[in-house]
What does this fold into?
Amino acid sequence: MLKVYLNRNEEENVLNGFPWIYNNEVHHFEGPIENGKVCSVYTLDSIFVAYGFFNIHSKIMIRILTLHEEDCINQAFFKKRIEYAIAHRKTLNWQATRLIFSEADFLPGLVVDQYGPYLSVQFMCLGMELIKKDIVDILIEVTHCKGIYERSDMPVREKEGLPQVKGFLYQSFDPRVEIEENGIHFIVDLENGQKTGYFLDQKLNRDMVRLYVKDKEVLDCFSNVGGFALHACKYGARHVDACDISNKACEDILLNAKRNGFTNLNVICTDVFDYLRSDKMHNKYDVIILDPPAFTKDKTTIKKAYKGYKEINLQALKWIKSGGYLLTFSCSQHMTAPLFFEMIKEAAHDAKRQVQFLDFRIQAPDHPALLDSQEQFYLKCLVLRVQ
It folds into this structure.
């Protein structure tokens, strides 16, 4: 096994729970370099630190598996980790849920989402890619799923020297599956939908709209397949406009609305930025929901992303009715909570509106985060009331 020795004191973050070791933190190696295989990590004074997946071609050179030297990294090890992750999700008792959330579940580079009897999986690092068959076998045994679809079609794989791929890993089935969330039925496209098919991390936040939408005029921006819009319909909104630029997303919104018998919904297929700037916004809505995609996945472009977040929030704040509610989100890890608050303050000032802060929320508990890894604390929600 390759032995990796760290620069002086670089082990402290790892011992405190940080899940990665970067290439500039490594002092030297001893032994054969095998990318994707497990290595052992030591301090410069030869004290054991951890075992982890090694990849010399990645900026994240080592992804931590365990801090315990006595652990044997084999199939039984990964089965135990998978069972540990799933045990938490069983307490939630959700039909559609994230079963495994990569480093946050001590399984670096592996994401597994459950949609009823089917699983959608992502293998994001070389180490997990090399043991894919073992992981699939364990998932079949532990979950008794009817099928597994792979959605490893994300750019992050290229940083690990891997191609983007997707397809069936276990059984063939119709990848458009039906799920139920908070009593609402959705068709989820595991093959071509966003991420692994659906944004599961917003489950509780979507249900939260029941507090604000009854008998209200509601606008759901960046609606995707209508998650927030359909919840607003369920919880008694007088009328809901769902806005998204994607033709496919708009078709899915209408399909899901019809499936649930909601008739108080209208779909606006256009650029959200353009719609928010249009005169159609003027004092029309009592509730506006802003749930955009991540405007940045790189800290070097945070200034541009900040402007984008500010623009949509500024326009919403300008035209929302007095006494109206703004539910605004960011799913970018680089848009930190303090930065998000600062952006909202600037937008409110520029819109010349007085704003009350009512609630702050994060991702659902099937998307945990390690205390020492802010990268996993990514979803932020502010609920505001506008005078």
About this structure: The CA atoms of residues 109 and 124 lie 5 Å apart. The first helix runs from residue 11 to 15. The radius of gyration is 23 Å. The chain has a mean pLDDT of 96.
